[in-house]
Protein backbone atom coordinates (compact mmCIF):
# COMPACT_ATOMS: atom_id res chain seq x y z
CA UNK A 1 0.00 0.00 0.00
CA UNK A 2 1.39 3.41 -0.94
CA UNK A 3 2.36 5.98 1.65
CA UNK A 4 -0.17 8.41 0.12
CA UNK A 5 -3.11 6.04 0.55
CA UNK A 6 -2.02 5.14 4.08
CA UNK A 7 -1.80 8.82 4.97
CA UNK A 8 -5.23 9.60 3.54
CA UNK A 9 -6.85 6.64 5.27
CA UNK A 10 -5.22 7.48 8.60
CA UNK A 11 -6.41 11.06 8.30
CA UNK A 12 -9.92 9.83 7.60
CA UNK A 13 -10.66 12.84 5.43
CA UNK A 14 -9.94 11.92 1.81
CA UNK A 15 -11.33 14.57 -0.46
CA UNK A 16 -12.30 17.16 2.18
CA UNK A 17 -9.60 19.63 1.20
CA UNK A 18 -10.42 19.12 -2.46
CA UNK A 19 -14.05 19.99 -1.81
CA UNK A 20 -13.00 23.32 -0.33
CA UNK A 21 -10.79 24.07 -3.35
CA UNK A 22 -13.66 23.25 -5.69
CA UNK A 23 -15.85 25.93 -4.15
CA UNK A 24 -13.06 28.50 -4.62
CA UNK A 25 -13.53 28.13 -8.39
CA UNK A 26 -16.46 29.55 -10.31
CA UNK A 27 -19.04 26.78 -10.86
CA UNK A 28 -20.06 26.00 -14.41
CA UNK A 29 -23.58 25.11 -15.39
CA UNK A 30 -24.63 22.15 -17.52
CA UNK A 31 -23.28 18.75 -18.37
CA UNK A 32 -24.00 15.16 -17.40
CA UNK A 33 -22.32 13.50 -14.43
CA UNK A 34 -21.72 9.83 -15.27
CA UNK A 35 -21.72 7.69 -12.13
CA UNK A 36 -20.46 4.10 -12.14
CA UNK A 37 -23.04 2.45 -9.89
CA UNK A 38 -22.55 -0.92 -8.26
CA UNK A 39 -26.11 -2.27 -8.40
CA UNK A 40 -29.60 -1.55 -9.61
CA UNK A 41 -32.24 -0.42 -7.15
CA UNK A 42 -35.54 -1.80 -5.89
CA UNK A 43 -37.49 1.43 -6.31
CA UNK A 44 -37.51 5.13 -5.45
CA UNK A 45 -40.09 5.39 -2.69
CA UNK A 46 -37.99 6.55 0.30
CA UNK A 47 -40.53 5.14 2.74
CA UNK A 48 -40.60 1.57 1.40
CA UNK A 49 -37.79 0.87 -1.11
CA UNK A 50 -34.99 -1.21 0.39
CA UNK A 51 -31.25 -1.07 -0.20
CA UNK A 52 -28.33 1.33 0.12
CA UNK A 53 -28.26 1.95 -3.62
CA UNK A 54 -31.92 3.06 -3.61
CA UNK A 55 -31.19 5.42 -0.73
CA UNK A 56 -28.40 7.22 -2.55
CA UNK A 57 -30.53 7.77 -5.67
CA UNK A 58 -33.44 8.99 -3.53
CA UNK A 59 -31.22 11.58 -1.85
CA UNK A 60 -31.12 13.41 -5.19
CA UNK A 61 -34.89 13.23 -5.70
CA UNK A 62 -36.18 14.26 -2.29
CA UNK A 63 -35.45 16.64 0.55
CA UNK A 64 -35.81 16.37 4.31
CA UNK A 65 -36.92 18.99 6.81
CA UNK A 66 -33.41 19.00 8.28
CA UNK A 67 -30.18 17.61 6.85
CA UNK A 68 -26.49 17.37 7.82
CA UNK A 69 -23.35 19.10 6.64
CA UNK A 70 -19.86 17.61 6.29
CA UNK A 71 -19.31 18.03 10.04
CA UNK A 72 -22.47 16.06 10.93
CA UNK A 73 -24.13 19.25 12.14
CA UNK A 74 -27.88 19.60 11.61
CA UNK A 75 -28.71 22.31 9.08
CA UNK A 76 -31.94 23.54 7.42
CA UNK A 77 -33.32 21.90 4.30
CA UNK A 78 -37.08 22.15 3.65
CA UNK A 79 -37.42 23.80 7.05
CA UNK A 80 -35.60 27.12 7.02
CA UNK A 81 -35.60 27.20 10.83
CA UNK A 82 -37.05 25.50 13.89
CA UNK A 83 -37.74 26.17 17.54
CA UNK A 84 -37.68 23.83 20.53
CA UNK A 85 -40.41 24.57 23.05
CA UNK A 86 -41.97 23.23 26.26
CA UNK A 87 -38.71 21.84 27.68
CA UNK A 88 -37.97 19.79 24.57
CA UNK A 89 -41.46 18.32 24.09
CA UNK A 90 -42.43 20.46 21.10
CA UNK A 91 -40.61 21.30 17.85
CA UNK A 92 -41.95 24.08 15.63
CA UNK A 93 -40.66 23.93 12.05
CA UNK A 94 -40.93 26.94 9.73
CA UNK A 95 -41.06 25.68 6.13
CA UNK A 96 -39.57 27.45 3.15
CA UNK A 97 -42.09 29.23 0.93
CA UNK A 98 -42.49 28.66 -2.80
CA UNK A 99 -41.22 25.07 -2.77
CA UNK A 100 -42.85 22.76 -5.31
CA UNK A 101 -42.85 19.01 -5.79
CA UNK A 102 -41.76 17.59 -9.14
CA UNK A 103 -45.45 17.16 -10.08
CA UNK A 104 -46.04 20.90 -9.70
CA UNK A 105 -47.93 20.77 -6.40
CA UNK A 106 -46.94 22.95 -3.45
CA UNK A 107 -45.00 21.89 -0.39
CA UNK A 108 -47.13 22.85 2.59
CA UNK A 109 -47.30 21.94 6.25
CA UNK A 110 -50.34 19.79 5.41
CA UNK A 111 -48.26 17.87 2.85
CA UNK A 112 -45.57 17.22 5.45
CA UNK A 113 -48.21 16.20 7.98
CA UNK A 114 -49.61 13.74 5.41
CA UNK A 115 -46.14 12.19 5.11
CA UNK A 116 -46.12 11.59 8.87
CA UNK A 117 -49.60 10.10 8.71
CA UNK A 118 -48.44 7.70 6.03
CA UNK A 119 -45.34 6.88 8.03
CA UNK A 120 -47.33 6.06 11.15
CA UNK A 121 -50.03 4.06 9.34
CA UNK A 122 -49.28 0.36 10.04
CA UNK A 123 -50.90 -0.66 6.75
CA UNK A 124 -48.21 1.21 4.82
CA UNK A 125 -45.40 -0.81 6.41
CA UNK A 126 -42.98 2.10 6.28
CA UNK A 127 -39.63 0.69 7.29
CA UNK A 128 -38.48 3.76 9.21
CA UNK A 129 -41.65 4.14 11.29
CA UNK A 130 -39.81 2.80 14.34
CA UNK A 131 -37.74 5.98 14.44
CA UNK A 132 -40.87 8.02 15.11
CA UNK A 133 -43.55 5.77 16.65
CA UNK A 134 -41.96 5.71 20.11
CA UNK A 135 -41.47 9.47 20.34
CA UNK A 136 -44.20 11.32 18.39
CA UNK A 137 -47.47 12.23 20.08
CA UNK A 138 -48.98 14.49 17.41
CA UNK A 139 -48.14 16.34 14.19
CA UNK A 140 -50.17 19.45 13.30
CA UNK A 141 -50.14 22.03 10.53
CA UNK A 142 -50.40 25.38 12.35
CA UNK A 143 -50.63 27.27 9.08
CA UNK A 144 -49.50 26.72 5.50
CA UNK A 145 -45.80 26.91 6.36
CA UNK A 146 -45.61 26.02 10.06
CA UNK A 147 -45.48 22.45 11.35
CA UNK A 148 -45.75 21.49 15.00
CA UNK A 149 -44.43 18.15 16.24
CA UNK A 150 -45.36 17.25 19.81
CA UNK A 151 -43.28 14.52 21.45
CA UNK A 152 -44.25 12.00 24.11
CA UNK A 153 -41.15 12.92 26.09
CA UNK A 154 -38.03 15.07 25.59
CA UNK A 155 -35.52 13.31 23.35
CA UNK A 156 -32.53 14.28 21.24
CA UNK A 157 -33.40 11.70 18.57
CA UNK A 158 -35.93 13.72 16.54
CA UNK A 159 -33.46 15.83 14.54
CA UNK A 160 -31.20 12.92 13.55
CA UNK A 161 -34.28 10.86 12.62
CA UNK A 162 -35.48 13.67 10.36
CA UNK A 163 -32.05 14.40 8.91
CA UNK A 164 -30.06 11.21 8.54
CA UNK A 165 -31.46 8.03 10.12
CA UNK A 166 -31.39 5.65 7.16
CA UNK A 167 -32.04 8.32 4.50
CA UNK A 168 -33.64 10.93 6.68
CA UNK A 169 -37.38 11.60 6.59
CA UNK A 170 -37.83 12.44 2.90
CA UNK A 171 -40.98 14.28 1.91
CA UNK A 172 -43.10 12.74 -0.85
CA UNK A 173 -45.82 14.48 -2.87
CA UNK A 174 -49.22 13.45 -1.47
CA UNK A 175 -50.77 13.99 -4.91
CA UNK A 176 -48.28 11.60 -6.51
CA UNK A 177 -49.23 9.00 -3.92
CA UNK A 178 -52.92 9.51 -4.66
CA UNK A 179 -52.24 9.11 -8.38
CA UNK A 180 -49.95 6.09 -8.30
CA UNK A 181 -50.70 4.37 -5.03
CA UNK A 182 -48.25 2.91 -2.56
CA UNK A 183 -47.08 0.15 -4.90
CA UNK A 184 -46.40 2.17 -8.06
CA UNK A 185 -45.02 5.28 -6.37
CA UNK A 186 -41.61 3.57 -6.29
CA UNK A 187 -41.48 3.90 -10.09
CA UNK A 188 -42.95 7.41 -10.24
CA UNK A 189 -41.10 9.43 -7.58
CA UNK A 190 -42.16 13.01 -6.94
CA UNK A 191 -40.08 14.85 -4.39
CA UNK A 192 -38.75 18.39 -4.13
CA UNK A 193 -35.13 17.44 -4.83
CA UNK A 194 -32.52 18.95 -7.15
CA UNK A 195 -33.16 16.27 -9.77
CA UNK A 196 -36.18 14.35 -11.01
CA UNK A 197 -36.52 10.99 -12.70
CA UNK A 198 -36.04 11.01 -16.47
CA UNK A 199 -35.51 7.31 -17.26
CA UNK A 200 -34.94 4.00 -15.52
CA UNK A 201 -33.81 1.01 -17.58
CA UNK A 202 -33.38 -1.78 -15.07
CA UNK A 203 -29.87 -3.17 -14.77
CA UNK A 204 -28.65 -0.55 -17.26
CA UNK A 205 -29.10 3.08 -16.26
CA UNK A 206 -31.03 5.44 -13.97
CA UNK A 207 -31.18 8.94 -15.42
CA UNK A 208 -32.12 11.99 -13.39
CA UNK A 209 -32.59 15.43 -14.95
CA UNK A 210 -32.20 18.89 -13.45
CA UNK A 211 -35.20 20.21 -11.53
CA UNK A 212 -35.63 23.71 -13.04
CA UNK A 213 -37.84 24.75 -10.11
CA UNK A 214 -35.48 23.71 -7.32
CA UNK A 215 -35.91 25.96 -4.30
CA UNK A 216 -32.19 26.43 -3.66
CA UNK A 217 -31.35 29.33 -5.92
CA UNK A 218 -28.92 28.49 -8.72
CA UNK A 219 -28.81 24.77 -7.91
CA UNK A 220 -28.21 22.23 -9.20
CA UNK A 221 -25.45 23.07 -11.65
CA UNK A 222 -25.61 19.79 -13.55
CA UNK A 223 -28.20 19.11 -16.24
CA UNK A 224 -28.25 15.38 -15.69
CA UNK A 225 -27.10 12.44 -13.58
CA UNK A 226 -26.54 9.04 -15.16
CA UNK A 227 -26.25 6.15 -12.70
CA UNK A 228 -24.68 3.54 -14.98
CA UNK A 229 -25.15 0.07 -13.53
CA UNK A 230 -21.71 -1.61 -13.45
CA UNK A 231 -21.83 -4.56 -11.10
CA UNK A 232 -18.19 -5.52 -11.71
CA UNK A 233 -15.76 -3.52 -9.62
CA UNK A 234 -12.90 -3.80 -12.11
CA UNK A 235 -15.17 -2.38 -14.79
CA UNK A 236 -16.05 0.61 -12.58
CA UNK A 237 -12.43 1.41 -11.72
CA UNK A 238 -11.26 0.96 -15.32
CA UNK A 239 -14.04 3.19 -16.62
CA UNK A 240 -13.03 5.93 -14.19
CA UNK A 241 -9.37 5.81 -15.15
CA UNK A 242 -10.30 5.85 -18.85
CA UNK A 243 -12.60 8.85 -18.40
CA UNK A 244 -15.67 6.88 -19.45
CA UNK A 245 -17.33 7.83 -16.15
CA UNK A 246 -16.78 10.76 -13.82
CA UNK A 247 -17.58 9.25 -10.43
CA UNK A 248 -17.43 5.82 -8.77
CA UNK A 249 -19.78 5.39 -5.84
CA UNK A 250 -18.24 2.17 -4.51
CA UNK A 251 -14.51 1.88 -5.19
CA UNK A 252 -13.30 -1.73 -5.27
CA UNK A 253 -10.74 -2.06 -2.50
CA UNK A 254 -8.12 -3.67 -4.71
CA UNK A 255 -8.15 -0.51 -6.87
CA UNK A 256 -8.14 2.08 -4.07
CA UNK A 257 -4.35 2.40 -3.98
CA UNK A 258 -3.97 2.77 -7.73
CA UNK A 259 -6.75 5.37 -7.93
CA UNK A 260 -5.24 7.33 -5.02
CA UNK A 261 -1.93 7.50 -6.90
CA UNK A 262 -3.55 8.85 -10.10
CA UNK A 263 -3.16 12.67 -10.19
CA UNK A 264 -6.31 12.96 -12.30
CA UNK A 265 -8.48 11.27 -9.68
CA UNK A 266 -9.65 12.29 -6.20
CA UNK A 267 -10.34 9.54 -3.65
CA UNK A 268 -12.77 10.18 -0.79
CA UNK A 269 -12.78 8.32 2.50
CA UNK A 270 -13.87 9.25 6.00
CA UNK A 271 -13.90 7.50 9.36
CA UNK A 272 -15.55 4.09 9.07
CA UNK A 273 -19.19 4.52 10.10
CA UNK A 274 -20.35 1.33 8.43
CA UNK A 275 -19.98 -2.37 9.18
CA UNK A 276 -20.32 -5.92 7.88
CA UNK A 277 -22.82 -7.95 9.87
CA UNK A 278 -23.61 -11.67 9.81
CA UNK A 279 -26.91 -12.38 11.63
CA UNK A 280 -28.62 -15.75 11.84
CA UNK A 281 -32.35 -16.31 11.53
CA UNK A 282 -32.79 -17.24 15.18
CA UNK A 283 -36.26 -18.67 14.51
CA UNK A 284 -34.66 -21.50 12.51
CA UNK A 285 -33.10 -24.42 14.27
CA UNK A 286 -30.38 -24.82 15.36
CA UNK A 287 -29.76 -21.05 15.35
CA UNK A 288 -32.25 -20.62 18.17
CA UNK A 289 -29.53 -22.19 20.34
CA UNK A 290 -27.20 -19.51 21.71
CA UNK A 291 -24.34 -22.02 21.92
CA UNK A 292 -24.53 -22.52 18.16
CA UNK A 293 -24.52 -18.80 17.44
CA UNK A 294 -21.60 -18.20 19.80
CA UNK A 295 -19.63 -21.02 18.21
CA UNK A 296 -20.25 -19.97 14.60
CA UNK A 297 -20.12 -16.18 14.87
CA UNK A 298 -18.06 -15.80 18.03
CA UNK A 299 -15.24 -18.20 18.83
CA UNK A 300 -15.18 -20.06 15.50
CA UNK A 301 -14.07 -17.17 13.28
CA UNK A 302 -11.06 -14.85 13.25
CA UNK A 303 -12.20 -11.28 12.66
CA UNK A 304 -8.60 -10.20 12.24
CA UNK A 305 -8.12 -12.65 9.37
CA UNK A 306 -11.42 -11.68 7.75
CA UNK A 307 -10.47 -7.99 7.87
CA UNK A 308 -7.06 -8.65 6.37
CA UNK A 309 -8.11 -11.08 3.64
CA UNK A 310 -11.50 -9.76 2.55
CA UNK A 311 -10.71 -6.05 2.90
CA UNK A 312 -6.99 -6.01 2.07
CA UNK A 313 -6.21 -4.50 5.46
CA UNK A 314 -8.45 -1.47 4.85
CA UNK A 315 -11.05 -2.57 7.43
CA UNK A 316 -10.88 -3.09 11.17
CA UNK A 317 -12.08 -6.19 13.03
CA UNK A 318 -15.33 -5.39 14.81
CA UNK A 319 -17.71 -7.20 17.15
CA UNK A 320 -20.03 -4.50 18.48
CA UNK A 321 -22.89 -3.07 16.44
CA UNK A 322 -21.37 0.44 16.52
CA UNK A 323 -18.34 1.07 14.23
CA UNK A 324 -15.51 3.41 15.27
CA UNK A 325 -16.66 6.27 13.04
CA UNK A 326 -20.05 6.37 14.78
CA UNK A 327 -21.00 8.08 18.03
CA UNK A 328 -20.86 5.73 21.02
CA UNK A 329 -18.45 3.11 19.61
CA UNK A 330 -17.12 0.61 22.14
CA UNK A 331 -14.32 -1.87 21.46
CA UNK A 332 -15.58 -5.23 22.80
CA UNK A 333 -13.50 -7.64 20.69
CA UNK A 334 -12.24 -9.32 23.86
CA UNK A 335 -15.68 -10.89 24.37
CA UNK A 336 -15.08 -13.45 21.61
CA UNK A 337 -11.41 -14.19 20.92
CA UNK A 338 -10.73 -16.64 18.12
CA UNK A 339 -10.89 -20.02 19.92
CA UNK A 340 -11.64 -23.03 17.66
CA UNK A 341 -11.45 -25.42 20.63
CA UNK A 342 -14.18 -23.58 22.48
CA UNK A 343 -16.27 -23.37 19.30
CA UNK A 344 -16.03 -27.15 18.83
CA UNK A 345 -16.98 -27.75 22.45
CA UNK A 346 -20.07 -25.54 22.18
CA UNK A 347 -21.16 -27.27 18.99
CA UNK A 348 -20.70 -30.66 20.63
CA UNK A 349 -22.88 -29.56 23.55
CA UNK A 350 -25.51 -28.57 20.99
CA UNK A 351 -25.33 -32.02 19.35
CA UNK A 352 -22.96 -31.48 16.42
CA UNK A 353 -19.62 -33.21 15.77
CA UNK A 354 -17.64 -34.82 12.92
CA UNK A 355 -20.15 -37.66 12.63
CA UNK A 356 -23.14 -35.32 12.75
CA UNK A 357 -21.97 -31.99 11.36
CA UNK A 358 -24.07 -28.85 11.29
CA UNK A 359 -24.96 -28.11 7.66
CA UNK A 360 -26.31 -24.72 6.68
CA UNK A 361 -26.22 -21.95 4.04
CA UNK A 362 -24.76 -18.45 4.16
CA UNK A 363 -26.63 -16.02 1.88
CA UNK A 364 -24.97 -12.88 0.50
CA UNK A 365 -24.68 -10.76 -2.64
CA UNK A 366 -21.89 -9.35 -4.80
CA UNK A 367 -23.01 -5.73 -5.14
CA UNK A 368 -20.31 -5.10 -2.56
CA UNK A 369 -17.53 -7.41 -3.78
CA UNK A 370 -15.88 -8.21 -0.41
CA UNK A 371 -19.06 -9.90 0.87
CA UNK A 372 -18.62 -13.21 -1.02
CA UNK A 373 -14.99 -13.22 0.16
CA UNK A 374 -16.13 -12.74 3.75
CA UNK A 375 -18.51 -15.66 3.30
CA UNK A 376 -15.77 -17.85 1.83
CA UNK A 377 -13.32 -17.05 4.64
CA UNK A 378 -15.99 -17.84 7.25
CA UNK A 379 -16.83 -21.08 5.45
CA UNK A 380 -13.16 -22.10 5.46
CA UNK A 381 -12.67 -21.24 9.12
CA UNK A 382 -15.82 -23.03 10.28
CA UNK A 383 -15.28 -26.14 8.19
CA UNK A 384 -11.81 -26.48 9.71
CA UNK A 385 -13.61 -27.26 12.97
CA UNK A 386 -14.70 -30.59 11.45
CA UNK A 387 -18.25 -30.34 12.75
CA UNK A 388 -19.61 -27.75 10.31
CA UNK A 389 -20.38 -27.81 6.57
CA UNK A 390 -21.25 -24.52 4.94
CA UNK A 391 -22.74 -23.68 1.55
CA UNK A 392 -22.29 -20.11 0.27
CA UNK A 393 -25.15 -18.69 -1.82
CA UNK A 394 -24.40 -15.46 -3.74
CA UNK A 395 -27.57 -13.99 -5.24
CA UNK A 396 -28.65 -10.82 -7.04
CA UNK A 397 -29.17 -7.93 -4.64
CA UNK A 398 -32.88 -7.21 -5.32
CA UNK A 399 -33.70 -10.88 -4.65
CA UNK A 400 -31.37 -10.79 -1.65
CA UNK A 401 -33.29 -7.83 -0.17
CA UNK A 402 -36.62 -9.57 -0.74
CA UNK A 403 -35.43 -12.70 1.05
CA UNK A 404 -34.06 -10.65 3.96
CA UNK A 405 -37.43 -9.03 4.46
CA UNK A 406 -39.09 -12.45 4.39
CA UNK A 407 -36.42 -13.91 6.73
CA UNK A 408 -35.74 -16.58 4.11
CA UNK A 409 -32.18 -17.48 5.14
CA UNK A 410 -30.06 -19.36 7.67
CA UNK A 411 -27.35 -16.74 7.96
CA UNK A 412 -26.88 -13.54 5.98
CA UNK A 413 -23.77 -11.48 5.30
CA UNK A 414 -24.58 -7.89 4.50
CA UNK A 415 -23.29 -4.34 4.70
CA UNK A 416 -24.78 -1.43 6.61
CA UNK A 417 -25.39 2.10 5.46
CA UNK A 418 -22.99 4.42 7.32
CA UNK A 419 -24.83 5.84 10.32
CA UNK A 420 -24.47 8.56 12.93
CA UNK A 421 -25.49 6.76 16.13
CA UNK A 422 -27.15 3.60 17.40
CA UNK A 423 -30.64 5.05 17.00
CA UNK A 424 -30.26 4.78 13.23
CA UNK A 425 -30.16 0.98 13.53
CA UNK A 426 -33.22 0.61 15.77
CA UNK A 427 -35.50 -0.52 12.94
CA UNK A 428 -33.10 -3.42 12.30
CA UNK A 429 -32.56 -4.34 15.96
CA UNK A 430 -35.92 -4.17 17.71
CA UNK A 431 -38.27 -7.11 18.12
CA UNK A 432 -41.93 -6.94 17.09
CA UNK A 433 -44.02 -5.62 14.23
CA UNK A 434 -42.77 -2.70 12.20
CA UNK A 435 -39.11 -3.63 12.45
CA UNK A 436 -36.94 -5.33 9.84
CA UNK A 437 -35.24 -7.14 12.75
CA UNK A 438 -32.93 -9.09 10.49
CA UNK A 439 -32.09 -11.78 13.02
CA UNK A 440 -35.85 -12.35 13.55
CA UNK A 441 -35.40 -12.39 17.33
CA UNK A 442 -38.10 -11.91 20.00
CA UNK A 443 -35.89 -10.47 22.74
CA UNK A 444 -37.78 -7.38 23.93
CA UNK A 445 -34.97 -6.44 26.31
CA UNK A 446 -33.34 -4.96 23.20
CA UNK A 447 -36.39 -2.73 22.77
CA UNK A 448 -36.24 -1.73 26.44
CA UNK A 449 -32.62 -0.67 26.16
CA UNK A 450 -33.30 1.31 23.00
CA UNK A 451 -36.24 3.00 24.71
CA UNK A 452 -34.00 3.97 27.63
CA UNK A 453 -31.44 5.28 25.13
CA UNK A 454 -34.05 7.48 23.40
CA UNK A 455 -35.25 8.92 26.70
CA UNK A 456 -31.76 9.75 27.97
CA UNK A 457 -31.13 13.40 27.14
CA UNK A 458 -27.86 13.43 29.08
CA UNK A 459 -25.07 12.47 26.69
CA UNK A 460 -23.09 10.52 29.30
CA UNK A 461 -26.11 8.49 30.37
CA UNK A 462 -27.08 7.82 26.78
CA UNK A 463 -23.57 6.58 26.03
CA UNK A 464 -23.67 4.20 29.02
CA UNK A 465 -26.94 2.70 27.80
CA UNK A 466 -25.55 2.39 24.29
CA UNK A 467 -22.54 0.48 25.59
CA UNK A 468 -24.80 -1.84 27.58
CA UNK A 469 -26.81 -2.54 24.45
CA UNK A 470 -23.69 -3.28 22.40
CA UNK A 471 -22.51 -5.84 24.94
CA UNK A 472 -25.97 -7.38 25.27
CA UNK A 473 -26.35 -7.82 21.49
CA UNK A 474 -22.89 -9.41 21.30
CA UNK A 475 -23.41 -11.66 24.30
CA UNK A 476 -26.61 -13.04 22.80
CA UNK A 477 -25.33 -12.94 19.21
CA UNK A 478 -28.45 -11.16 17.97
CA UNK A 479 -26.61 -9.07 15.37
CA UNK A 480 -23.04 -10.36 15.11
CA UNK A 481 -20.58 -8.11 13.28
CA UNK A 482 -17.19 -9.04 11.78
CA UNK A 483 -15.55 -5.87 10.45
CA UNK A 484 -15.92 -2.23 9.54
CA UNK A 485 -16.86 -1.44 5.96
CA UNK A 486 -14.57 1.03 4.22
CA UNK A 487 -16.64 3.68 2.42
CA UNK A 488 -14.48 4.81 -0.49
CA UNK A 489 -15.61 6.93 -3.42
CA UNK A 490 -13.60 8.41 -6.27
CA UNK A 491 -14.04 11.07 -8.93
CA UNK A 492 -12.08 12.51 -11.78
CA UNK A 493 -10.54 15.91 -11.09
CA UNK A 494 -13.09 17.52 -13.42
CA UNK A 495 -15.77 16.86 -10.78
CA UNK A 496 -15.98 19.91 -8.54
CA UNK A 497 -18.18 20.96 -5.65
CA UNK A 498 -19.10 17.48 -4.47
CA UNK A 499 -19.53 17.41 -0.69
CA UNK A 500 -18.38 14.09 0.79
CA UNK A 501 -20.64 13.05 3.67
CA UNK A 502 -18.79 9.89 4.72
CA UNK A 503 -21.23 7.73 2.77
CA UNK A 504 -24.15 8.79 4.98
CA UNK A 505 -25.56 10.73 2.05
CA UNK A 506 -24.64 10.94 -1.63
CA UNK A 507 -26.04 14.15 -3.05
CA UNK A 508 -24.92 15.95 -6.19
CA UNK A 509 -26.87 19.22 -5.86
CA UNK A 510 -23.66 21.29 -5.58
CA UNK A 511 -21.50 19.22 -7.95
CA UNK A 512 -20.36 20.63 -11.30
CA UNK A 513 -18.05 19.68 -14.13
CA UNK A 514 -14.94 21.63 -15.11
CA UNK A 515 -14.97 20.47 -18.72
Task: Characterize the structure shown.
With 515 residues, the chain is α+β, with helices and mostly antiparallel strands. The chain is 30% helix and 20% strand. It has three domains: 3-38 and 194-270 and 493-513, Periplasmic binding protein-like II (D-Maltodextrin-Binding Protein, domain 2, 3-Layer(aba) Sandwich), CATH 3.40.190.10; 66-175, Dipeptide-binding Protein, domain 1 (Alpha-Beta Complex); 275-484, Dipeptide-binding Protein, Domain 3 (Dipeptide-binding Protein, domain 3, Roll). The protein has 16 helices and 22 strands. Strand 3 (66-68) and strand 4 form a beta hairpin. It is globular and about 70 Å long. Mean pLDDT is 92; it is low at 6-23.
Main sheet record: 8 strands, mixed
Query: How large is the count of helical segments?
Result: 16
- Rounded to an integer, what's the Rg over CA atoms? 23 Å
Number of strands: 22
Named CATH topology of the largest domain: Dipeptide-binding Protein, domain 3
Which CATH class of the largest domain is shown?
Answer: Alpha Beta
End-to-end distance, in Å?
32 Å
Shape: globular
Across the major sheet, the strand order is 1-13-20-12-2-11-10-9
**pLDDT averaged residue by residue:** 92
List the domain count as a whole number: 3
Q: Low-confidence parts, pLDDT < 50 over ≥5 residues?
A: 6-23
CATH architecture classification name of the largest domain? Roll
β-sheet strand percentage: 15-25%
- CATH H level, superfamily name of the largest domain: Dipeptide-binding Protein, Domain 3
Helix content: 25-40%
Provide the structure class: alpha+beta
Amino acid sequence: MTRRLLHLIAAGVLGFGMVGLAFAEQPRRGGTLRIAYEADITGMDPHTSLGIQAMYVEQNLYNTLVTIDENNEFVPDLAESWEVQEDGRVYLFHLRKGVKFHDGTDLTAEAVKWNFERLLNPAEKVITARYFEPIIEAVDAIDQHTLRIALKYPTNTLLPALAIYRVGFMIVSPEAYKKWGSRDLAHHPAGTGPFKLAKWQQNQVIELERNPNYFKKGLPYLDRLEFLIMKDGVTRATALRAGEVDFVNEVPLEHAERLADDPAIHVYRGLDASKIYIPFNVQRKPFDDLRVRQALAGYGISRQTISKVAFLGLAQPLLGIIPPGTRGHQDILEMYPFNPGKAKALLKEAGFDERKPLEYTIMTHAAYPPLPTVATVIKTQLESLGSVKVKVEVIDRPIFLKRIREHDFDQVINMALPFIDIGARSYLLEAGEGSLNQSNHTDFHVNELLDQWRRAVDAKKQNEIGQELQRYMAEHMLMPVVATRPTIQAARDTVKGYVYLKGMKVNFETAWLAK
